[in-house]
Write a structure and sequence with these properties.
The complex is a heterotrimer of chains A (168), B (224) and C (621). Chain A has 168 residues and is of the alpha+beta class. Chain A is 45% helix and 11% strand. Chain A folds into 2 domains: 9-62, no CATH class; 74-167, Glutaredoxin, CATH 3.40.30.10. In chain A, a hairpin with a 2-residue loop joins β3 (130-132) and β4. Chain A is elongated. Chain A starts with 22 loop residues before the first helix and ends with a helix. Chain B is α+β, with helices and mostly antiparallel strands and 224 residues long. Helix content of chain B is 26%, strand content 12%. Classes of the chains: A alpha+beta (168), B alpha+beta (224), C alpha/beta (621). At the A-C interface, α1, α3, α4, α5 and α6 of A face α2, β9, β11, β15 and α17 of C.
Chain lengths: 168, 224, 621
């Protein structure tokens, strides 16, 4: 494990309405830094804030935004809001799961993609909606998502190659 | 003192009293699965429902968490309560059928059939163990983690907790895992686990031993 | 002349600044409003804005024509949208290639580019001016109207359109009690769902005695299919902020907190900027505009939990805990955030406040019905032609919203139901199309106003599937504390699943109804109590559809996978092989004559063949 310890500067921020520390905003910062919530850091957070560890674990499991396992390099988020559902996101999701061989909520074995669902991104006019690495794709269909992921696959492969070659 | 109307009677109770305590004080029995006098109120099992508010505009609340309020109209035994409670008990039976506590409740409220798919969970998430661990044992070793249908009692990161002193308080207070009924056995139609206990329902319903209908124990008794 | 940028010391300073801003703006009435809301940016409005700027620069008109990257312009379906001012010419689906022409013809000469105009989906008529388009014509855009003329990142823009004037008036001309009274007279009701009178809420908090009080803006818009609050915060953050400050003054709070979903990063950014700008001008912070009133605002970001929209759960989440609702009473006014008196208002409710204070309660009351005054923003989505954000007077009929503003059902389909109120609401059938939309009417019909999501459904939407969708949503989003809500929802889903598979029975349908009403009665918080609404309302109005699934093993809408099958009609098929090539399950093969056939056992019923077949040879039954 790399240096997971000793970085809790996030705790210096005061919480809304009180001078204490908001565990949720601290955990937001930890997740932003590591892309997930590493157990070691959470244990340290508990010790630092004098919070029972179980309370931290409860928060980490209660809120869907938090993840206790590392996320994939690329994140595919599909919106499962009502509008997306009515316009057929489920077919798209089945297709993505089939293509990548993982169920929503998990990461591919090579750590390249993680597949997530979110209960409405608030862009319902674009339904059905899929977001890949922060980029929104509206009016999705099974055949379109197939093409997009293939294209994305090729693109990332290329950049991965150029990165490694430039590193030399 | 707070004045209110309980089942049509004008009564007064001290400030800070809950409706459950009030009803119990006046000798009215209300069933509950997640309440214990030594622990804080939680309101999760929903069995202690009472109806508050004037007829026609009334609603159901859990009496263990609802504070007595000036002028409140409370009814403890209405048809609406009975209907909701029987449905809840049926759900409990469908989820956690081998708990003796739940079987006794089913018996007391004459819930004799389960129309849902039978599951065999060993936890009803009443939270008694969690409050026991926190409030009485001061350990905070376990908690209710995750949410929705995935909610469960767990230790931090599902590993052996450093805070746990193996005091057994959680087991002692659990209404689901203590005195589990094993159901009909090969050699004997009942497991006999309940015969070693003094089930509370016996005081009221002398012929009742088991939630099954017809009650196997009663049938045995009749035969003797 | 005084430098006003250093801070406004009195409402007179604000008026002076406004006067200067208006004068400066009056000389430049030519501008282009480019929609910068999420919808249009997905269609590429970012690049459109940049190339507009480049083009103007090349032609040397950058000084004469302004470009405003605005909040949602409403008609998300037709993005990217541009409105050319001062004529208000409306262009839709603008591409980069069109930009030069727009500038040459429309901006410089006032001519119209015909092919970019909006065309009515039913009549085929083209419209030039935005205000003539039926989508806009039938709306009353009190809150959203400002999105057209407002850059959300600019506090100057907001001040130029009389922004913070209401705050100045409240602080200097009115006592807190008078502000509360004005809101009470206006009959403003909470726009978050339940419709509790805002004035009464404020009055209770105003009367509560405490050294410290809080006012919270609830921007945890969790209802799937609703994005009004996001668009308001992204399009006009200062209106919400001004409402929050006035609310703080009225109830005696010195601190305001905006609780916002983590899923809305853009809104968080725009809001933070707005707070910063307001602080710099002295409209927030210590001694606001010399009135002696101190008020501070902070943002609290959620972490993905629908249940945190419930006020007691929301407070618990702000305190940094797990968002579980608790029994009320004690109400938040008695024991709220950090055990202090607290009032929680929805984003849209607060955005209405400056309008009421500025124009008077009487003016606000002129729109709406007796019990539900003012306007309401709906996100009109689903199978409707003009998806987007609409603001209508309360009391308007569903028919007007869906058919006049929304332009009817997509692809010439037939209307089946409209879902309002999110997971707490219900589906209303055709018979309610002519009933007015207000809090009471929707509740009586078995649905609710909710925060304003309006999802239109056509004949290809299965009502059992919709009920299952919401149950799955709630199963995941319920906090799980109450046994009745947690277990009740799981069991309702179990039965609904069985019906959707064609293995249900009429007894199970009765059990579903019985269970639904028990869950409604016995759960603790509002979310649990309303969790059965999607099931109960679909059974109430579409029981025949349930019975079709149970008795005939048929899904009339063709949605429930276990009950449908795909076939290829050899009459229409020209053996192009598209279905064979595209089938993800490899379930389409050629038979001896080279004719594609679907192997039913292998078919995953994804519908790809139906989607790819250009000859209409794939049949779904």
């Amino acid at each position: 494990m790399q240096d997971l310890k000793g970085d809790l500067s996030v705790l210096d921020k005061p919480v809304a309405g009180n001078n204490g520390v908001s565990l949720i905003s601290a955990m937001h910062d930890i997740q932003e830094k590591y892309s997930y919530l590493p157990e070691e850091v959470l244990r340290e957070l508990a010790a630092e804030t004098d919070t029972p560890l179980i309370e931290i674990y409860r928060i980490a499991t209660f809120y869907k935004h938090f993840s206790l396992t590392p996320k994939g390099k690329h994140r595919i988020v599909s919106c499962t809001g009502t509008a997306c559902h009515v316009r057929g996101i489920e077919v798209v999701n089945t297709e993505v799961s089939r293509l990548l061989g993982v169920e929503p909520g998990s990461t591919t074995a090579d750590g390249k993609y993680s597949l997530e669902t979110v209960n409405c991104l608030g862009a319902c006019a674009l339904a059905p909606l899929v977001v890949i690495d922060g980029e929104y794709y509206g009016n999705m269909t099974a055949s379109r998502i197939r093409k997009i992921i293939r294209k994305h696959d090729k693109k990332t492969e290329k950049t991965a190659c150029s990165c490694s070659s430039s590193a030399k | 003192m707070i004045n209110m109307i309980l089942n049509g009677l004008e009564i007064s109770v001290e400030k800070g009293t809950t409706l459950l305590e009030t009803a119990n004080f006046y000798g009215i029995e209300i069933p509950t699965l997640c309440h214990d006098e030594g622990l804080s109120s939680y309101g999760a099992c929903r069995l202690c429902l009472v109806e508050v508010g004037p007829p026609g505009r009334s609603w159901l609340v859990s009496s263990c968490t609802y504070p007595a309020r000036e002028g409140l109209v409370v009814r403890t035994h209405t048809r609406r309560i009975a209907r909701a409670r029987r449905m809840l008990i049926e759900l409990y039976l469908a989820t956690c059928p081998s708990s003796k506590t739940i079987q006794d409740l089913a018996c007391q409220f004459q819930v004799t059939a389960v129309r849902f798919r039978q599951r065999h969970d060993d936890c009803i998430l009443c939270g008694l163990c969690v409050r026991m661990c926190d409030e009485q044992m001061q350990a905070k070793a376990i908690g209710l983690v995750d949410r929705g249908a995935d909610r469960r009692v767990a230790t931090p990161f599902d590993k052996k907790s450093e805070q746990c002193r193996l005091c057994g308080g959680c087991q002692y207070i659990c209404p689901a895992c203590q005195a589990r009924c094993q159901g009909p056995q090969e050699e004997n139609p009942i497991c006999n686990a309940c015969l070693n206990l003094a089930p509370p329902c016996l005081e009221e319903y002398e012929d009742a031993m088991c939630y099954m209908d017809p009650c196997v124990a009663c049938e045995l008794k009749g035969n003797n | 002349m005084r430098n006003l940028q250093a801070g406004l010391k009195s409402p007179a300073d604000l008026e002076l600044m406004r006067k200067r801003l208006k004068e400066a703006r009056g000389r430049r009435e030519n501008y282009l409003a480019v929609c910068g809301d999420t919808g249009c940016t997905v269609w590429g409005s970012n690049t459109i804005k940049d190339s507009l700027q480049d083009c103007l620069k090349r032609k040397g008109f950058l000084e004469k024509v302004d470009i405003k990257f605005t909040g949602c312009l409403g008609l998300c379906e037709s993005g990217p949208v541009i409105i050319v001012f001062p004529q208000e010419i409306f262009y839709q689906k603008v591409k980069e290639a069109d930009i030069e022409e727009i500038i040459d013809k429309t901006v410089l000469k006032g001519e119209v580019v015909e092919r970019l105009l909006y065309e009515d989906p039913t009549s085929g008529q083209k419209y030039i001016y935005a205000s003539d388009i039926p989508f806009y014509k039938n709306q009353v855009r009190v809150l959203l109207g400002n999105n057209w003329i407002n850059d959300p990142n600019s506090i100057e823009d907001y001040i130029a359109i009389d922004g913070y004037k209401a705050l100045g008036r409240a602080l200097t001309e009115m006592s807190p009690a008078e502000v509360v009274e004005e809101i009470k007279i206006s009959h403003l009701r909470g726009r978050g769902g339940a419709g509790f009178p805002t004035g009464r809420k404020w009055e209770e908090c105003y009367k509560a005695s405490s050294d410290h009080k809080y006012i919270i803006c609830n921007a945890d818009e969790g209802d799937p299919g609703a994005f009004m609050d996001r668009s308001l915060l992204e399009g006009n953050p200062h209106a919400v902020l001004e409402g929050l400050i006035i609310g703080g003054y009225a109830v005696g709070a010195s601190e305001g907190i905006i609780y916002i979903r983590a899923e809305y990063p853009t809104a968080v950014d725009k809001l933070s900027l707005a707070i910063n700008n307001a602080e710099k001008l002295g409209l927030l912070g210590e001694n606001i505009m010399g009135s002696g009133f101190n008020f501070y605002v902070s943002i609290s970001i959620g972490a993905g939990a629908f249940v945190c929209g419930e006020t007691s759960a929301l407070v618990s989440s702000i305190e940094g805990k797990v968002g579980e609702p608790r029994q009320k009473p004690p109400h938040l006014v008695e024991r709220g955030l950090w055990n202090k008196p607290t009032v929680v208002n929805n984003v849209e409710t607060l955005a209405n406040v400056p309008y009421i204070i500025l124009n008077g309660a009487g003016e606000f009351c002129r729109t709406g019905t007796k019990e539900s005054r003012g306007t309401k923003i709906f996100s009109l989505v689903g199978k409707v032609n003009n998806t987007g954000l609409v603001e209508v007077p309360l009391g308007i009929t569903l028919r007007e919203i869906i058919f006049e503003i929304g332009g009817g059902i997509k692809d010439g389909g037939k209307f089946k139901a409209v879902q309002t109120g999110g997971p707490s609401g219900g589906c209303l059938p055709e018979m309610f199309l002519d009933s007015p939309v207000d809090f009471e009417e929707l509740k009586a019909a078995g649905s609710m106003m909710g925060s304003g999501g309006m999802i239109v459904m056509d004949e290809e939407t299965c009502m059992i599937d919709v009920a299952r969708y919401f149950l799955r949503f709630l199963k995941d989003e319920s906090c799980g504390k109450c046994f009745s809500c947690r277990e009740g929802i799981s069991r309702m889903l179990e039965i609904a699943d069985s019906i959707a598979r064609g293995t249900g029975s009429l007894e199970e349908l009765e059990l579903l109804k019985e269970l639904g009403s028990a869950v409604k009665d016995s759960s603790m918080c509002g979310l649990g109590q309303s969790s059965a609404n999607p099931v109960l309302s679909t059974i109430r109005y579409f029981e025949d559809e349930y019975k079709d699934h149970i008795l005939e093993n048929k899904c009339p809408a063709g949605v429930c996978r276990e009950l449908i099958s795909f076939d290829i009609d050899s009459v229409f098929c020209n053996t192009c092989g598209a279905c064979i090539k595209n089938c993800p399950a490899s379930a389409v093969c050629e038979d001896k004559e080279g004719q594609p056939v679907i192997i039913q056992e292998a078919c995953s019923k994804c519908g790809t063949c139906l989607e790819t077949c250009k000859h209409g040879a794939v049949l779904k039954r």
